[in-house]
Amino acid sequence: MLLLWGVAGLIPQFTFNLTEKSVFVFIYLAILISYYKWYMREFSVKTCATIIAGGFAVNTLYWLLANILYLHTGKN
Protein backbone atom coordinates (compact mmCIF):
# COMPACT_ATOMS: atom_id res chain seq x y z
CA MET A 1 0.00 0.00 0.00
CA LEU A 2 2.89 2.37 0.68
CA LEU A 3 4.20 1.75 -2.82
CA LEU A 4 0.78 1.95 -4.42
CA TRP A 5 -0.38 5.15 -2.72
CA GLY A 6 3.01 6.68 -1.86
CA VAL A 7 5.28 6.41 -4.88
CA ALA A 8 2.68 5.78 -7.58
CA GLY A 9 0.67 8.75 -6.29
CA LEU A 10 3.48 11.04 -7.47
CA ILE A 11 2.96 10.03 -11.12
CA PRO A 12 0.95 12.71 -12.97
CA GLN A 13 -2.44 11.70 -14.38
CA PHE A 14 -2.47 8.60 -12.15
CA THR A 15 -5.35 8.87 -9.69
CA PHE A 16 -6.75 6.50 -7.12
CA ASN A 17 -10.48 7.15 -7.19
CA LEU A 18 -11.93 4.78 -4.60
CA THR A 19 -15.47 5.43 -5.84
CA GLU A 20 -14.86 3.74 -9.20
CA LYS A 21 -14.57 0.03 -9.85
CA SER A 22 -10.98 -0.84 -10.67
CA VAL A 23 -8.24 -3.34 -9.92
CA PHE A 24 -6.51 -0.86 -7.59
CA VAL A 25 -9.64 -0.42 -5.49
CA PHE A 26 -10.09 -4.19 -5.28
CA ILE A 27 -6.47 -4.72 -4.21
CA TYR A 28 -6.71 -1.94 -1.64
CA LEU A 29 -9.94 -3.22 -0.11
CA ALA A 30 -8.80 -6.87 -0.21
CA ILE A 31 -5.64 -6.01 1.73
CA LEU A 32 -7.51 -3.95 4.31
CA ILE A 33 -10.19 -6.60 4.84
CA SER A 34 -7.64 -9.42 5.00
CA TYR A 35 -5.56 -7.57 7.56
CA TYR A 36 -8.62 -6.85 9.68
CA LYS A 37 -9.84 -10.44 9.46
CA TRP A 38 -6.50 -12.10 10.20
CA TYR A 39 -4.75 -9.80 12.68
CA MET A 40 -7.22 -7.53 14.43
CA ARG A 41 -9.86 -8.08 17.07
CA GLU A 42 -13.43 -7.15 16.17
CA PHE A 43 -14.42 -3.58 16.96
CA SER A 44 -17.06 -3.17 19.62
CA VAL A 45 -20.15 -1.06 18.99
CA LYS A 46 -18.75 1.60 21.33
CA THR A 47 -15.47 1.75 19.39
CA CYS A 48 -17.31 2.04 16.07
CA ALA A 49 -19.50 4.84 17.42
CA THR A 50 -16.42 6.65 18.76
CA ILE A 51 -14.62 6.37 15.41
CA ILE A 52 -17.67 7.64 13.51
CA ALA A 53 -18.18 10.54 15.94
CA GLY A 54 -14.48 11.43 15.78
CA GLY A 55 -14.51 11.39 11.99
CA PHE A 56 -17.60 13.57 11.92
CA ALA A 57 -16.02 16.02 14.38
CA VAL A 58 -12.78 16.25 12.40
CA ASN A 59 -14.69 16.75 9.13
CA THR A 60 -16.93 19.43 10.67
CA LEU A 61 -13.94 21.24 12.18
CA TYR A 62 -12.12 21.12 8.83
CA TRP A 63 -15.06 22.64 6.96
CA LEU A 64 -15.59 25.33 9.59
CA LEU A 65 -11.93 26.37 9.46
CA ALA A 66 -11.94 26.28 5.65
CA ASN A 67 -15.04 28.51 5.52
CA ILE A 68 -13.56 30.99 8.02
CA LEU A 69 -10.34 31.11 6.02
CA TYR A 70 -12.28 31.68 2.80
CA LEU A 71 -14.31 34.49 4.36
CA HIS A 72 -11.14 36.27 5.48
CA THR A 73 -9.00 35.72 2.36
CA GLY A 74 -11.46 35.08 -0.47
CA LYS A 75 -9.29 32.18 -1.65
CA ASN A 76 -9.95 28.46 -1.43
Give the uncertain stretches in residue-range form.
none
Estimated helix fraction: 55-70%
Biggest sheet character: none
Average pLDDT number = 83
- SSE string: HHH
Categorize the overall geometry.
flat
Number of helices: 3
Rg over CA atoms, rounded to whole Å, is: 18 Å
- What percent of residues are in strands? under 5%
Oligomer: single chain
> Based on DSSP secondary structure assignment, what is the total number of beta strands?
0
Counted up, domains total 2
Structural class: mainly alpha
Span between termini: 30 Å
Explain the overall architecture.
The protein is an all-alpha fold and 76 residues long. The protein has two domains: 1-40, no CATH class; 43-76. It is 68% helix and 0% strand. It contains three helices and no strands. The chain has helices at 2-7, 23-39, 45-73. The chain is flat. The mean pLDDT is 83.
List strands and helices in order, with pairings.
Blueprint: H1 2-7, H2 23-39, H3 45-73
Give me a quick take on this structure.
This protein is an all-alpha fold and 76 residues long. Helix content is 68%, strand content 0%.
